[in-house]
Amino acid sequence: MLLVGGGVAALVGLTPLVYLVIRATEGGLGPLRETVLRARTAELVWNTVELAVAVTVSCVVIGVAAAWLVTSTDLPGRRVWRVVLGLPLAVPTYLAGYAWLNVRPTISGTAGAWMILTLCSYPYVYLPVVAALQRADPAQVEMARSLGRGPVASFLTVTLRQTRVAAASGALLVALYVMSDFGAVSIMRVDVLARGIYNSYRASFDRTPAAILGCVLVVMTMAVVVAESLTRGRGRSARVGAGSTRRGQPQRLGWVAVPALAASAALVVLAIGVPVWSLFSALSTGRSAGIDWDRVGQATSTTLGWAAAAALLTVALAVPVGVLAARFPGRATRALSGATYLGHALPGIVVALSLVFLGVRVFTPFYQRLPLLLLAYAALFLPLAVGSVEDAVARTPASLEDAARSLGHRSWVVWWRVTIPLALPGLAAACAMVALATMKELPATLILAPTGSRTLATELWTQTGVRAFAAAAPYAAALLVVAIVPSALLSLGRRERG
Amino acid sequence: MRSRKRVALAALVLLVGLLAACGSEQADEPVESDTTTASGTLVIYSGRNEELVGPLLDMFTEKTGIEVEVRYANSAELSATILEEGDASPADVFLSQDAGALGALDEEGILRSLDQETLDQVDTRFQAESGTWVGVSGRARVLVYDPAQVSEVPESVFDLTDEAWSGKVAWAPTNASFQAFVTAMRVTAGEDVARQWLEDMQANGTVAYESNDLILAAVEEGQAAIGLINHYYWAELVAEEGAENVSSKIAFLPGEDPGALVNVAGVGVLESATHSAEADAFVDFLLSEEAQRYFSEETFEYPLAAGVDADPSLPPLATLGGPSIDLSSLSSLEETLALLADTGVTS
Question: What ipTM does this complex have?
């Protein structure tokens, strides 16, 4: 059962790769070697690595620091901050890019892309670290303090260790996201692989070089996934009954509260304030005002519906993979969960074309229908769910399953009645992550959506395509508003119980 | 208890979303069932923006009674999609932003020939040699400039390599229109001249942008002094912001300068089209007076048929310069791309 489910998920994740290999080798080995060995390709790879490393590092620093502030200190208003600091996940990079260009037209290049990607994706680290710190045993920090370590030293030696696994899994998502992102890098004009792939389609109508670059991206993804799995320790822990966690004494910030508050406020202003302000200024100027509420409403409901459906499908596919990885850790299950990550670093257009390839050959009746589009979303966003599910399952004690089994229940009944309910908060978080990513997705939606349907992202693309920024603003605003719901849900997450 | 409540809330949100999805699915259904039964609904892949051609398609349906179903995306992505779909493509017609994407399909034998009568309505300059596609509107390459920084507008793109313009020029090397212009330069002035120009431009610190829009924005902001774009981007900005709020100006280059190339947006019918007659009706409609007037008045492009005049703010099509070139030869894009990659201008 589980194996079949896991196999299906891996197949979905691997679909784009199969397509890429077919297309990349189409012209024989000559063009393959030529494209891979071109100096230009090396440059694209280097730029990609540089940007991914820079963004990942800054996201880890910001994410961990912010998480620590809202969970372990007496930062004024920390309950509100906890939610607000997670919200930037709702901002699509293309929206942030346009907003920043609007505010500061001179911004560009690697620095600009680094800033936008950091502001839009640090919550990938922040959210799991908040959860990890809330679960962490405060006794460890207290012990360190009682043995004479200062607050800084105990943060460095104890707290950071407690957040390591969560931060690493978040960092993985950030790195893969940066590799796949086209919005920020195109607006900031940074030549990375994702942009090279898009340009190859746009410029040459030749699918072979684009596919070859896609393969290069997949190889890099594998390296990142392996690197992340190496950072994980072997030890995994679960409590019997999560209720025994208690809250520790919050760290007194004293005067540090002032810079901490200033930094938090600055983060929120840069990540959310700038896009929102840009929207309002676009709404108030420009000729094409006059909002078509019907159209906005329709696009909103389509967006919500597809996001929900994509979330359910993706999480359903992720559950067997997550359970296998959590319960039977080993090389085989690691390869399985690794396979689901491959699609995530690929630009949407590559995944879309791979499903066109598959759709017209195999799933003809579903071509340009909702089911195939949902499959594309699943291929793109599986890793967002797999990590979350695996983490949640690993945290539920296997002994409860053994007990249920010893009472004579079949194994699938045990999964359904014991494992899944215990892991439910984690599954809900996974749903929210996938829903968010789906709402913001554009290229695969354009190619694969049922003809004539509109989402907020496609409407935004249409309006900005004719520079009608005022007309685009309501869609951007609606996208932010609907995306804030799952973001807030994620930030609220597991609140400590008293 | 708390977490249970939250899960219930999350479930509720998902459920509402799902219901919305079912709702929108139902709304889509009549349209969808039409595709499968292959009734009279014409399927169009449009590389042109919905805001630009949407009203035109409504006019077509109103006039002919032929329903249309449209998929909007970028021309190149749609072209790649059609190539991937092959004979199984649901599309009947491909409406492209530029001749290049149509040329790529033509080369793969995916487009079928159009009626001679249809082709005869448009100057042979603006159609495929093979007769598989025809231009429906013209787009001229122009220089957009910031009058605060530019007192004397260059007379040729070849002047832009001058030291006076060092670091002041903006181009969009990955943009299809730009590449068509470079192809025109290659074809008319020769490979070596084009290579030299690209190298000199780079050495002169020409700044690369992703699109004509971003170039125009940069010139508007004074970030760049001169940009190489298509004429209608500027005209659209004027329409959106009002003439008094637009600081930049445009210049049409005189003579045979490749920088004055007039490219086209065009249309082609797929060999595998299931609604062939409707497709022909659509092509003819695009060349009718009504549609041509629409292009002139709404998208500020040059009308190519039915004797319709260009927007009064623009010089007439007949007076424009530009290289004497067969637009079909712009399909030698492969060589242009190799050149752009070789000179390090693009990947």
Answer: 0.85
